Amino acid sequence: MNKQLNMNWNGMLRQQVFGLLACAVLGGWAMPLLAQDSVFLFSGSPVRGVISDSTKTSLIVETKDGRSEVPIQSIRSISFGDEPPGYEKAQRAFDRQKYDEGLAELVKVEEGKNDGMVYREIEYLKALGSARSALTGGSVDAKTAGSLVGGFLKKYPETWHFFEMTELLGELLVAIGRSDLADAEYAKLAESPLPNFQLRGNFQRAQAQLLAGDGNAAEKSFDAVIASGLNDEAAAKTKALASCLRAKALLLQGKREDAQVLVMKLIKNEDPKQTELFANAYNILGLCHQQAGEDLQAVLAFLHTDLLFSNQAAAHAEALYYLSQLWPKLDKNDRALEARTTLKSLYRNSVWAGKLDR
Known about the structure:
CATH superfamily of the domain at 260-358: Tetratricopeptide repeat domain
Number of helices: 16
Order of helices and strands: HEEEEEHHHHHHHHHHHHHHH
CATH architecture of the domain at 260-358: Alpha Horseshoe
Number of strands: 5
CATH class of the domain at 260-358: Mainly Alpha
Largest sheet: 5 strands, antiparallel
Low-confidence stretches: 1-33
């Protein structure tokens, strides 16, 4: 009797399950039976399936039609069907440039099963957030962030974030005063098969060479940027900035007059709305005046960056550093202290804050 009841009960359960499956397949439900991963593109329909692996230049997705290799330059964002709680909150915080807040959310994410792509992305987000926190004056110091980024790249040498994270590692090395080591990281970008990363690699390499005092090498790297065949909006902006910073390379080679003529031309002819360009142009102008022994004119140039373009963090930190050195020459020690305090407060992990203590 009990056996018969169990058979009837199991049969009823099977009928209910099959009925529910039929509803789902025939469109009775809007939700999919199994959660899918999604790769959203800058153009076209998303690629859906299971994100299974990656290379340095593509993300691999197992779709219903087979394996698809999605080029990284076409990817706008991704989402996972099995995202743990906290993952999306961390991403949203990073989007708002609230890196410490995002890192706090990632601490809450359970790391029990760390073999899937979603958990690989969580490791990426931790390294990314730490690097951004360090580079924007957050709670993470540059050495700690560098260890996390370097560790991620060592663990996942074929990550689709390879070039992004390599650039960040270079920036962190610059921040701790190791522009020599940063040069090797930027060289990897310059050798990338992707033109946009080649451009970024040469540009960042040139900046590291400037910090190392190698004006000749920096000029060649800037020339490579300017000669790039890329002409999109981002490339045009990078090329314009390279043309400006090339003047600093000339200055390092003792060509002060040539450098000053170049930046004055930019200041006269370009749109001041290009704040990054103008911040760097006024900094170079300040360096030209400083090299000529014109301390007052140098201070006035650096004050342009300090007062008008303080939203450009890297250039503002540089201007504050030089103001801290120049104000005492004008018997303004209180202003020098103010510049030092602001630099350490806003940009404590920058290469310029580091120079104050060396």
